Amino acid sequence: MKLNKCNLYNNYYTKINCTKIYVDYPNRRVKIIDIDSISSETLKKIIDFSVDENLDKVICNCGMKSIEIFKEAGFKMEGEINGYFNGKDAFCMSYFLSNKRKISSNLHIEELLVQQCLGLKDTFTYDSNKNEYFIRDAEEKDIKEMVKLFSAVFSTYPSPVYNEEYLMETMNGNVLYKVADYNGKIVGIASADMDKDNLNAEITDCATYSDYRGKGILSNIIYSLELDLKKKGYITLYSLCRAVNPGINIVLSKHNYKFTGRLINNCNICGTFEDMNIWIKNISI
After folding, report:
1. Domain 12-96, what fold?
2. Partners of 193 in beta bridges
C-alpha cells in the first residue's frame, strides 16, 4: 500500500545511492522502489543497511534488464508478475538475511492447495439474481465498519487497515475499496491498489465475516473490481495471498488468475510470518 502522511508503524522512505527504498518494520523487510540506477554497490549498501536495522528480507520487483545484477548480489527469484511494468514482466527478487526467514514451514500443504486450485481454473460465473447482498464502492461513511471487519478477520496485517485515518487517506488516493452490503451491514471487503504509472493493480485487503463465507461474496467483489479496472485501462492485475488459505486461492484460480510463484515468509499477517502466493491476470485482452 502507498502511504504518505499517515505513518502508524514508523515506516519510512529513504534513499541509498539515489535509490529509493521503503523501510518496513512490522514486516521486517526493505522494499527497493527505484530500480532505474540500481548497481551491485547499491545493493550491497542496502543489504548492509538492512542488517543494521535488524531486518531480515530485502525485496524488489525488477525488470529483465536488472535481473542479473540482483542474482549476482545473491538475490533469489521467487516468482514473477507478467505485465507489471506497462505490459512488461517484473521478477520478484528477494534477499534473505536469516536462515529462519528463508525456510517455509508449510510448503507441502501449500503445494497441494495450488494443485487443488488449478483444478478449478476459470470456472467463475456471475449471477446477480442469486445475491442477497450488493457490491458497491466503499465510501468514507463506511470506514468504521471496515475497521471492525478487518479487526475481526486479521489479528495482524501488513498494512494498518485497523486505522481510520489510513483507510481515509488510501481511499482518497490510489486504492479502490469495494464492499458487500447485506441489509445495510458491510460483510465483505476487497480493494485494488492501483499503480497508474505502470497500469497494474494489486487485488488485496480481502476480508469476509466468517458467518457470510461460502456465499460467493469475495468472488463477486473481485468481479466488480475487475470491471472497473478494465474500464480504467489497466493491463495487469495481481494478488499476493496467504498460501495456506484455501478460500482466496480458490477464488483467484476460478477467476482465471495464473499462479506464478511464492514469496516465502513475506509478511506479518494473522499473527505470524506467512508465505504469499502470487496470482496474476491480464485484463487488457
Report:
1. Aminopeptidase (3.40.630)
2. 175, 202
- Locate the domains of the chain by residue range: 12-96, 107-282
Is 12-96's fold the same as 107-282's?
A: yes
| 201-242 confidence digits (pLDDT tens) | 999 999 999 999 999 999 999 999 999 999 999 999 999 999
How many Å apart are CA 269 and CA 254, to the nearest integer? Answer: 24
Query: 10 Å Cβ neighbour count for 67?
Result: 17
Q: What is the CA radius of gyration of the chain?
A: 19
Report, at the CATH architecture level, how domain 107-282 is classified: 3-Layer(aba) Sandwich (3.40)
* pLDDT tens digits along 124-149: 998 876 778 999 999 999 999 999 99
Q: Which three cell numbers stand for residue 24?
A: 518496513
Grid cell of 220 as nine digits: 463477486
Nearest residue to 218 via CA among 242, 254, 188, 249: 188
Buried b (16+ CB within 10 A) or exposed e, 87-106: eebbbbbbbbbeeebbebee
